[in-house]
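Supplementary Note 3. Input sequence used for the single-chain structure prediction.
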Amino acid sequence: MHSVRDIEETIAEEFEIFDTWMERYEYIIDLGRQLETFPDEWKINEHLVHGCQSKVWFKTYLQDSLFVCKATSDSAIVSGLIALLLRIYNNKEPADIVITEPSFISMIGLNEHLSSTRNNGLNVMLQRIKKDAQSML
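The predicted structure, written as discrete structure tokens, is reproduced below.
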């Protein structure tokens, strides 16, 4: 199993192949299209991530001592951001999630190229992942 940090570095390397931010956005959107289906019965207030401009739902649980997260959004770009987050944090030990500060955001330049509302939403989703992982310790 790769660590959170290893996965972040792999993602940063993948983003280096793109010449423009338009290509990066297209890649992020494509990642979002590959998310697992999120059942409609999970789209309830309990799973809603508050503080995002778009509708975002996270269902998290502990399985075999690993953090598991299923998620979706009604926004294409946010779905892609979710896909990145799940790639990094899904099926990881909760302690690894809690202690590792996310560096992929600056590594791939998201902090400079997302709108302020999208950056805020990304931070809210990260806080939710860390809070849920903390509760599993």
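The domain at 4-135 is CATH 3.90.1010.10 (Sufe protein. Chain: A). The mean pLDDT is 96.
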